[in-house]
Write a structure and sequence with these properties.
This protein is α+β, with helices and mostly antiparallel strands and 111 residues long. 35% of the residues lie in helices and 36% in strands. One of its GO terms (molecular function) is structural constituent of ribosome.
Length: 111
């Protein structure tokens, strides 16, 4: 049985989220929590919140044992890009792309 949690429209680039997601993939719940608490990356905070949500879903909705949980899958896909304009010299305008992410985190029980 797998319990999932989703974070949609996160205002952080998927490329930055993937760096932190790779650190916790396959780790136990306690170990992943420890990694996220000590990693000084912007994506650590939303991923920690998502991990707690997935663990709560597993415990309450699927009656799983929180001691046996591990991160079975975690991935970030690009969401919509918010486009902004930065004024430049001689009347030009450069585009600024503010990227968003959709993050999926799943936890499962180890046998």
């Amino acid at each position: 049985m797998v319990a999932k949690a989703y974070a949609k429209y996160l205002r952080i680039s998927p490329r930055k989220v993937k760096i932190v997601a790779d650190l916790i993939r396959g780790k136990s719940l306690a170990q992943a929590t420890g990694i996220l608490l000590t990693t000084p990356k912007a994506a650590s905070e939303p991923l920690l919140k998502l991990l707690k949500s997935a663990a709560a879903n597993a415990e309450n909705n699927h009656k799983m044992d929180p001691e046996k949980l591990y991160v079975s899958e975690v991935f970030a896909t690009p969401g919509p890009i918010i486009k902004r304009i930065m004024p430049r010299a001689q009347g030009r305008a450069y585009r600024i792309n503010k990227r968003t992410s959709h993050v999926t985190l799943a936890v499962a029980e180890k046998e």
